Amino acid sequence: MGVIVKRPYSEVVIGLGVALLLVLTLFAVIAGATGFTPKEDIRPLAKFYLYYAINWHEKKYWAASPEAVNSMVWDYRGYDTLYETSVFFLAIIGAIAVFRIPKVKDVFTKGILSGKGLSLIVKTITKLVIAFVLIVSIAIAVHGNLTPGGGFQAGSAISIATLLAIAAFSRIFLEERKITTKLMLPIRVLGVLGIGLLALGPGLIALSGVTSFVIQNQPKPWANWGFIPGIGPFWLSGNQFFYNFCEFVAVGAGFTVIYLIFSIPELIYKKVLGK
User: Fold this and answer.
1) Any residues with CB less than 8 A from the CB of 132 and at least 6 apart, and which?
2) Greatest CA span in the chain, whole angstroms?
3) Less Cβ around it within 10 Å: N or C end of the chain?
4) Both ends of the chain: CA-CA distance in Å?
């Protein structure tokens, strides 16, 4: 015999209210009541990016990349991306500072948790999914200058493997494979350091008398220095390939650090605070 669960009226009212809001919003967009109607014409700035992202016949302002979005991120508005990476770097530092355990460099839960994880079926499927995630993440990173994707997307994707492992196998599974905050923090720093060196590299080259600017990718009319646009059939798109890979390393390691910190058992914090 089934069990009937009675929901409070407040939940019903909230659900109906959200549904009504969605319907009204959709109607407002269709009716043009929002005051903004998308135009079919491409804006001049978008035309510029699409025209110059990769154009063998007009290399005056090109980024040497068929992926226009990636060109915008790492070339045309590189300073913005550099600041965004810095903000993410500082956010990770803040999380580590808040959740740190005094006088403890790394946390190991073996002997505190059982480490059994979920069922054998879940573990087997999770192993296959983790392998798929790793392959796809690397592909997104190395092809970010060719197809939609990039370093941040790839780093976010590969960090999901950490979450899956914690959920299916427990935190001990990662600890036994040396995937700890002590390892991930230096890897993350190396990724950010690589981005910094790539950004400052052209500026340092300018000291030798060659006209170039920070974060410069390809030669411009006012700066004649630039990365090689491509090697054979494999496109490197100048420095964009290397930016994506370094961002992939930094973001993947950074999110992994956060997940490892959040998976520390409450029992350990209580034990430390109790002292």
Assistant:
1) none
2) 85
3) N
4) 52
Work out the burial of residue 205: count CB atoms within 10 Å of its CB; fewer than 13 is exposed, 13-18 middle, 19 or more buried: middle
Does residue 117 contact residue 173 with C-beta atoms inside 8 Å? Answer: yes
Give pLDDT tens digits for 28-49.
Answer: 777 766 666 667 788 888 889 8
CA neighbor of 131 nearest in space, from 119, 123, 141: 123
CA proximity to 68, closest of 194, 240, 263: 240
For residue 247, give the H/E element and its range: helix 240-262
Q: CA geometry: angle at 201 spanning 195 and 207, to 5°?
A: 155
Q: What is the average pLDDT across 105-132?
A: 79
Integer angstrom CA distances of residue 212 from 52, 62, 137, 166: 19, 15, 33, 47
pTM of the model: 0.80
Q: Any idea which residue has 């390892």 for tokens?
A: 183
Question: At a CB cut-off of 8 Å and minimum separation 6, what does 157 contact?
Answer: 133, 136, 137, 140
DSSP 101-128: -TT-S----BTTB----S-HHHHHHHHH
Q: Which amino acid would we find at residue 123?
A: K
CA–CA gap between residue 106 and residue 261 (Å, rounded) = 10
Distance between CA atoms of residues 87 and 79, nearest Å: 12
Over 60: is that where the pLDDT of 4 sits? no
Task: Say how many CA atoms lie within 13 Å of 200 toward its Cβ.
Answer: 7
- pLDDT for 46-84, tens place per residue? 889 889 888 888 888 988 888 899 999 998 888 898 888
Task: List Cβ neighbours of 239 (8 Å cut-off, separation of 6 or more).
Answer: 74, 198, 201, 217, 227
Tokens read off for 44: 């001049």
Are the beta carbons of 99 and 157 closer than 8 angstroms? no
